[in-house]
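>> received
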Amino acid sequence: MVCNTRYILFEGPIFVFVLFQTSYKHSGLNHIQVVEIELDDGRYKGMPFVLRRGETWIKNNDSDFYLDFNTKVTKKSKDTGDAGKGTAKDFLERIADLEEDAQRSFMHRFNIAADLVDQARDAGLLGIVGLFVWIRFMSTRQLIWNKNYNVKPREISQAQDRFTDDLENMYKSYPQYREILRMLLSAVGRGGEGDVGQRIRDEILVIQRNNDCKGGIMEEWHQKLHNNTSPDDVVICQAIIDYIKSDFDINVYWDTLNKNGITKERLLSYDRAIHSEPKFRSDQKEGLLRDLGNYMRSLKAVHSGADLESAIATCMGYKSEGEGFMVGVQINPVNGLSSGFPDLLQFVLDHVEDKSAEPLLEGLLEARVELRPLLTGSSERLKDLIFLDIALDSTFRTAVERSYEELNDAAPEKIMYFISLVLENLALSTDDNEDILYCLK
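>> returned
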């Protein structure tokens, strides 16, 4: 193909007559041919041309082709018709619209999430995945937890309980979504009826009074707990306990906080900021360790669905006495568990810190296998059983990670046995587990 160009026009009345001929070159793209003409003067207005193939002249009807240099080249915007394809786009936009309101407090976020459950279900698997991603962002502190809004702990736990109840009902009615719903529940935490949340508010006051620690960090933390309790409070409580156990080594306090993603800046960022470091007397040690250890149960009952001790206590039942204005809490055992199940769970608790992980892993799997039929039915208090299974699974993974060093010099038979245990645990957490079961045969 040849391009014959007869003249090039300048802007204005003057034009230059030019006649030249050039051949097209192959571009390497689908047999397309191109010709490149470099113009070193920006005043050129246009270029008429015709094409020739062999002896055949190709024109634009009876006229020359004309290339207008003044035509502005505009980038065609990318077609966004498929934007969001593979996602529940409308549902995700709804979540984004509500995020500003959800940032006010956990109460707002959980109530909004509960309101969205039906919409997520109607959007199918992609809708439930979208809800999970949103809640997962929250649990990993990627979203704002509280903004200029004070809310009582019992109001948070009630909203959380409402949300997890809705997820539990979907888990019962839509077995095809159970795997993702299980992940969603693990990111939320259990929640609880009003008395469970109220206990967080009341118990810290009793701890302060009984241990003569009404100022400093305990007062600042008390203000945060009363107005904006969150999963961070579990970490703060553990950091104070570790500090006391270390004979008041302040470095231990900060190590526990930092390992769990809480910095000094984060403590100061709360609406009710924590400025002070812990500072206690030696005669306060015994009482604080006892009372803070008990308080951890109340915190974990609301915020830590995957905590093993809390999950076991909820399923086996426990009672916390009231004291003065502090409400009492009584959690009854879950019905339908075998008579030997409490002993099995106690075995797990007794061996959870063992250096040799093998007996613990076997006990954890045995407990999960026994739970399996209850999780696939419509058991009473199914939510508590799901959280127990999540906690057993989490403890299993932690124990396996802890045993890596033990396996460095292990015989191949032992390594293969550990792999079989890991596969069995994975099969218990996976709905479509046929391939995993084949690997175990």
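>> Residues 341-440 form one domain.
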